[in-house]
Amino acid sequence: MQNCKSQIHGPGSRNNDSTYRQSTATTEPTRSRCSRRPAARLAPRPPARPFPIPWTPNCLPPLPVRLSRLQHFHPRAAVAGASRAAGRPVGSAVAKMNDADVAKQIQQMVRFIRQEADEKANEISVSAEEEFNIEKLQLVEAEKKKIRQEYERKEKQVEVRKKIEYSMQLNASRIKVLQAQDDLVNKMKDDAMKELLLVSHNHHEYKNLLKDLIIQGLLRLKEPAVLLRCRKEDHHHVESVLHSAKHEYASKADVHEPEIFVDHDVYLPPAPSHHDAHGQFCSGGIVLASRDGKIVFESTLDARLEVVFRKKLPEIRKLLFGQTAA
């Protein structure tokens, strides 16, 4: 610290002035005390121009101060200041110092300043690198988050699409199963209708069936006069059982025998044939109506099959497909 203090003050400080006065006093001739002439006072020496001296590592000024002092630096002035501080003649020190020493000292100072600049540049570079890495990590994490969110959204869309497709396939399979069940039930109904066509082939049984159908219709209508319609090929069968049917109805209902008018102008459709498979047809039976036509009792074999089929359909499905098909 003492060395640093002496370097800060330079050759123009108070200590250097006192040293200069002492050295000057020893060189001048001694005067007698009794001399009447007053001793000439020494004029104060003007302070020498400060010059930069290399600083110790423990006592360094800031870099701008060092640069400003370096601008006023002159090698020979530095040597002269050092000679004055040591009490040596200035001219001899300057003479002894050659250009190589001056260049060497300048190079040392340049290296020192350059080292300081390099260290500062390294600090700035390291700080900038750290800030760059932090910013880069933040940007990378933000982009990763966006990508993850995008893929999560797409994954949810894929899952929803899969569920929709699965539901559609499940519904399609259920529709196919129901369609197959309906086809099977309708096939059974068609087979039953084909069996009804064979009923009219047995004339004896078919006559008894027509008689029972007429009696049942009269009991339902309970009209004194009714209109009867049948197929054209069944006309003679109806005429043969009509009298016995009226008598049996009167005995069961305990009424007078009703008047039954057979319609000879309008007949029921005939049985289905290969030439007209999609037209209207009737497998057999009769249709009774009141004289004014407001009440109609349809007792054909096809209508009765439709009523029975609709009523027994749950039981048919249960027998064919089990509990789940009901």
Automatic annotation (TrEMBL):
Pfam family, one: vATP-synt_E
InterPro entries (UniProt xref): ATPase_E_C, ATPase_V1_Esu
Species this protein is from: Zea mays
Annotated Polar residues bias: 13-28
Recorded coiled-coil stretches: 103-157
Region (Disordered): 1-51
Name of the protein in its database record: V-type proton ATPase subunit E
GO MF term list: proton-transporting ATPase activity, rotational mechanism
GO cellular component terms listed in the entry, alphabetical order: proton-transporting two-sector ATPase complex, catalytic domain
Gene3D superfamilies: 6.10.250.1620, ATP synthase, E subunit, C-terminal
Family classification: Belongs to the V-ATPase E subunit family.
Signal peptide positions (record): none
Annotated keywords: Coiled coil, Ion transport, Transport
